[in-house]
Every structure is written in C-alpha cells, then in structure tokens.
Amino acid sequence: MISDSTVAAGTCVLAEKQWGGLRFRVSPSVPGFRLRPDPGENLEFLVSAHTAPATDTLEVSLAPEPPGGPDAGRPFYSSPRGWRMVLENNVRVALNHPPAFKHPLWKAQLDWPVEEVRLRMGVDMRAGEEGLWHDPFCYPLDQIVTMYVLASRQGLIVHGAGVVIHDGGWIFAGKSRAGKSTISDLILQSWPEARLLNDDRVIVRRAPGGWTVYGTPWSGRLQTCHADEAPLRGIFWLRHAGESRVTAMGPAESAENS
Fold it and tell me: Is 2 a member of any domain?
C-alpha cells in the first residue's frame, strides 16, 4: 500500500511490503513526506486486505537528511553497482553512492539484531514536487535488509528458482547461468498447474512444521515472481552436463555446493 497524502511525522505508514513472512512498514520521520512508488515494483508484494499475517513486522524510518560522505566508515563489501557495506562504530551500514552521482543516495543503519532500519536520503532522491521522494526501499536495499533480518530469524535468501507443484515447494539452486530460469521454463511447460515463485531468488525459513519456501520480488530472466509460499519438499543443485540425471546427495556434499 502506497499513500499519496501529505502526512504528519510518525502518524502514517507510507508503504507496507511483505515477503518471506516479513512485513516492512515504511514510515516518515518528518511532516509533509510522500513517496513516489518504484515503477518496476511488483504489486503482489504490497500489503493489502488479502495479505496473510506476517511472522515479523519491522519499521523502516525515513528521513530526508544528508547521508554523509562516501568514505564514511570502514568498507567490508563493495558492489560494482555503487552500493557498499561499511562499519561505523561497530554498526553495519548500507551506503548507496553510484559513480554517476555526486552525493550518496541513501544510507541505512542496520543494528543487530535488526528490529528497525533508520534510513537517511540524499537530495538526489527528490522526485521533483515539494515533499515527494523516490521510494528507496526497493532493490538493492530491500534485499540487503531482508538478508540481515533473516539471519537472526532462522531464514536465508537462496540463489535458486522456486516452483510449487502439487502444494509442495521445490528449489533449483545454482550459480549464475547454471540454468535456473531454463529449468523453471521447462517445468512450467510440462506441468501447467505448477506455479513459479521466482526464477532466481527465494527465501527459506524454518516453520513449526518444517521448512517453508517463499517467493521474493527479485526475479531473474523470466521476470516472473509471486508472493506465495509452500512447504519445502526438496532442493536440486544444478550443474551443466551432457545428459539429464538426478543424483542423491548427502548433507556434506550438499553443504559443499551451497
């Protein structure tokens, strides 16, 4: 749900998004703050009256403040796309400063364990109108935050395709170009009743009755993803070979492939 109304500080949630049993409530910390939705956002992952209850709810607090210089903190991971992870006073911070911009776009503080995300936005996140800002809680920030949240909640993001067949979830995991999107396409052609959760990244979490696989909004080549979930039935590790075959793997070999 995205609100286009001008709101007083702390009185309104501008957006609610949910995947993997996690609900993210994006709220302003100043008055007169509005969000322009990401045009590529999958509406299935916006909370509506039909969305299932979430296991966990987290607050994402927005503030239009200068995020600071690009060299603040000690970096421990840098992405070619311009965002990086840094340590500031032993606190993990996600900082996005693409080369094309003079100032950082946003800076998110991730305390451990993550219960709230405090997000500061730079001037280049303005969307033109007074008080209107581009929604920062989209890729890559939403995936970064999700990864850290799941680490303390018995879950993780798996680089794999997720397919639901006969109410059971199956994951086809592998490195880039291993064939995740290809096998997803073949399954959908062979089983019309199958439903694709995502062809590139899914979430797995421990549930009271076992493990559950969830769809995520970060799709691959097929550009298809759904906000569904299913009990996890099995995981296949994809490898290129001259023939198609399935080989059972023990725990040790599975860990080596993960």
Answer: no
